[in-house]
Amino acid sequence: MSNATAGASRTQFWALYLTRFAEGFGFITLITLLGTYINALDPQATTVLGVTVSAGFVIGMYTTGFTLAQTVAVVPLAWAGDRFDKRTVLLGVLAVGTGVYALFPLVDSSGSFILVRALQGLVVTGTGLMTLSLVGQIADVGARADKIGKANAASFAASIVGSLSAGAMYDAVGFGPIFAVIAALMVAAWAVTWLFLDDDDTRVEGFPFSDLAVNRRILTMTTFRAQYAFAVTMVRTWVPIYVSTEMAAGGLGVTGIAIGVTVTAEKATNMVGQLFTGRLSDAYGRSLFVFAGGGAYGVIAMAIPFSAAIGSALGAGVTLPILGDLPPAYLPLVAFSGLLGVADSFREPASMALFADEGTDDGGVASSFGIRELVWRPGSVAGPLIAGWLMVEVSMGSVFYVGGAFAITGVLAFLAILTHDHGRAALTAW
């Protein structure tokens, strides 16, 4: 590769990394403020077409509306990316995203919040599919997980900045200015993509989903990913809900900036980890990293309900500058959140690289990532509904027990199939 070609490739990667940053900033802002929206909008039980809908179900829809829209968007967006120019599709999605984030300050009810979050789901799905597909397509095979890990690290960097700034800005000025910043970032991402990303000349005829859906390696990954989706969606969403909801509802009721610190702990460790773990999984076997990361995530999630007991034993109830009065459970919860990020940093780039490998080899890298997204959808749609019901009807801790159990059963099913297919060398076979 000539120096000019290498430089062009680096410029394209950086353009995609910056776009991932913008996507991650918008996504994490809503995750960080989800508990705050629950407090502000005060979801109540309601009756729809003669059916009583509980407050827990409405809370679950704050996330499920987002994931349902993602589910609908995956197939047409992935097909369009493979059939036409991924760059053009990405530019269109970023333009729509600018308008969507400008709508959030107008939200004044649970119904309008769920609707705008659904539109956000379309934007996040399209941006994620196109950026990851292009990174996987441009990268060399032996460096694919490494490049994907760096793209994810850019998203997590946005998550750190977004979660901290969202909490602090909300405490100072409310919702409006936060979304003005996100809309401006989407405009900047559009400009960077238009200026520096080359046209995508690959074209895939037909409907590549049909061939990739029966790909043996993709089917093996599906056994894990379908269950793991419940775990991550429940745990990742409910950590900030746990820390931000009122104590009467089982939460910790801390300030906005303290919420941001909790979310940031997971994002920071995940970001730093993925700068290295992608390269390691390229070298030592991607299935091993999927198994180890997924299993560790489940164990850590199931330990979260013990935060209060650990904090009380350590005398962790303190008052800190900026963060204010903190209950005993807070600091142990921040530590567990950081450990969740470490665990997921092992799994994520390895998993993505496996799907990129299959899509690139068989034709249709966007469709391969689309299948990866579709497999995630049942868990991401049903998981918050289960978690909302558990939070209201059982306890806050039960959300993390059930979420962690899904991760454990997922890695055990994955290991069983790998062992059947590859014997004792299963975890180093891929």
UniProtKB/TrEMBL annotation:
Keywords assigned by UniProt, alphabetized: Membrane, Transmembrane, Transmembrane helix
PROSITE patterns registered for this protein in UniProt: MFS
Highest rank taxon of the organism: Archaea
InterPro entries assigned to the protein according to its UniProt record, in alphabetical order: MFS (IPR011701), MFS_dom (IPR020846), MFS_trans_sf (IPR036259)
Record flagged with keyword Membrane: yes
Residue intervals passing through the bilayer: 21-41, 53-77, 89-107, 119-139, 151-170, 176-197, 287-309, 329-346, 398-418
GO MF annotation: an example: transmembrane transporter activity
PANTHER family named among the record's database cross-references: C-METHYLTRANSFERASE (PTHR23518), MAJOR FACILITATOR SUPERFAMILY TRANSPORTER (PTHR23518:SF2)
Protein name per Swiss-Prot or TrEMBL: MFS transporter
Species classification: Archaea, Methanobacteriati, Methanobacteriota, Stenosarchaea group, Halobacteria
